[in-house]
Fold these 3 entries.
Entry 1:
Amino acid sequence: MTNVKKHLSLLGLKVKDKVTGYTGVVASIGFDLYGCVQAIVNPGMDKDGKLQDSQWFDVNRLEITDKTPVMKLPNFEYGAQAEGDQGPCEKPRMNKV
């Protein structure tokens, strides 16, 4: 598995930041011009149903807490999504924290 595929395989997994303890689901992976590979972690909703703010973390700070993706992942290798011709997958379910 290439490193890019390894990083993309984090999408949809539940993770915990080793430094802060912040938990949530990896919603996006970013590869920036300066060499950083980061993941945006979405913590979901609070007990009152308010959507919480997502945060970016370097991938090497993240610990996988559940290896089962929360939803089916898009196919970024073949087809319309790979070509950038298709929008998002189905709307994700909202889960309370």
Note: Strands lie at 14-17, 23-31, 37-42, 55-58, 62-66.
Entry 2:
Amino acid sequence: MNLKSDCLSCLLNQSLRVAKNLNLDEDTAKEMMKVASISIANYGEVSPPVAAADLYPKLAFFTDTDDVYKALKELSTQEASKLLPSVKKQVKTTSDAIKAAVAGNVIDFATPNHFDLDVEFEKVFETDFAIDDEALFLERLKEAKIFMIIGDNVGEHVFDKLLLETIAKEYPELKLYYTVRGVPIINDVTLLEAKEINMQEVATVVDSGVNTPGLAYNHASDEFMKLYNSMDLIIAKGMGNYECLEGVKDERIFHLFKVKCDVVSIDVGATLGSLIFMQNRV
């Protein structure tokens, strides 16, 4: 999915949020916004995650870190971990765990609309998917021998682990993989955050090599793509992965996310705030 006009304003607003998050002085913040404006004005036919991969290192140039949301990512993990015990009590089946995983997708620093994690969990188990291919996914899961979740944001990865644990109990012979970004980008999960919650206890954690907040094939390593192509079944978490993968015509992929912007709302055909569990269109 290529950039729309709304995406350009979203990227500019993201730049401003980074400046405020880093508590930059006014002159530095203005300079950052000038650089962001010039870059954004020149993006062509690329997906939002590919544009973000170009933009965020330019924002980080004004700081002493390449991980502009490091502190907020740590806080997201802490907040998700506090909720985990109560969420676990409500998860009895793989279907329940899928709902927990999609609720975690509200943790996102790149979208114009924000949702409360506690409120999301109060209602998620009684909320239907606006697009619901769960039955098809569960049938495919019974037949699969090797399965991957492509992670999205830090904090929600706590609930991705719960989903993997639940699947492992139901399908003990299934080989499980969890994919992370190659470098820090926005608040996306990397090897560091996956290891902090011991994701490797339940799945083989793999680095995709991408610098994009979504799995852009031409940014991934050859080694990863070889493994990826061997999968029987894949869950792609979050809108960034949807934006990168919705056009690849691969029916192994099931998208799991909350609709958090108007552009994706229009593209997927569901209202803002909807929950989506959808097989990739072919």
Note: The two ends are 14 Å apart (CA to CA).
Entry 3:
Amino acid sequence: MLCVLVTLMLATTPIYSQDSLQLTSKDSIVQSSWMFGVGYNFIDDSGDAFNDFTTIKDQWNAVAFPSRISIGRYFKSGLGLEAIGTYNNYKKGNIIDGIINPEDISYYGLDTRISYDLNKLIGETAWFDPFIGVGLGYADANNTPRGTYNAVIGFRTWFSDRWSLDLSSSGKWSFGNEASNHIQHAASVVYQFGIEKGLSKKGLEKLAMMEALEKEKQRVADSLADVQRAKDAVAMTIRLAKEKEAARLAAEENARQEVENLQKQKKDELSTLNKVYYRFNSSYLTVMDKGKLNELVAFMNKYPNTIIQVRGHADARGKAKYNDWLSERRAQTAVKYIISSGIASNRISGEGFGETQILNRCTEGVKCSSEEHKENRRTEYSLK
């Protein structure tokens, strides 16, 4: 039954590496705390704030210094209780209650509200912490004191467990007199203290996985004695199988080493063979050239499984396209001679490289001696 439980948990939870399957600070979240905030408030009391709350010019009022202070307690349930005090100044010339304000008028507000953390519904969203709330307040606005029903929506952006930026907008509806309704926006820096933490959803999943794995380890430990007895019964068979496998691997390694040694021996011998150096503008084989190629024929007869590529080259004089053709012709001339000497055609091939692999400084346009140019009119051999 326990095995089935572990299997189901593995299928429905994230996969963790052995190193990551431990609880860390990233697996915990703040569940309750106090929050203290200081910031700014911006008020739209134009009379049509709820019709066009995006209008700023001539309608929004603010002061240049911090004008909002708040203190609140937030609980594990997601609910929060908060008290907020604000000061503002209705500017002369702005629209207040539908008319142009004739003079600067101070604004005072004291609000209480109950908020709810929407992360409790949508899941933890790391730094993004949206909330909604309702409350009651008192405001002295436009020289008209009034009680207000309030509704708020906003979010906090957390930079750490302690600090965040709080942005919100509150609608305030008057009751008890004919004062106009208004909107109050806020931006505050919030400090969190008195923190109580708990495991996040991911942390709870890790903890459940760790507990299940610990139980499984215990079950395995309890059965080790039985497993050991079974191992003792087949220990000799396993050892003999390992020895046989080790012998096979050793034989394969010896065979591989012999092949590598033979290949190295071939390369070393091939490098000692004389190369054919053609005369200028020629692919003709002289008697001396054929003697050099006979060394290659002897090499291929000595190693009958060897396949060779003949690589023809030209010096940098003349057109590159012509040199490509000439080097190819030189390579094929050597190949034809080797085939005529009894070597199977499938063991020998040729390719021309033109003037692309000059060995010295004698590239196109560089003045060199005949001997220096001759060094590049060569035919080389390579194993395939």
Note: Residues 201-272 form the longest helix (72 residues).
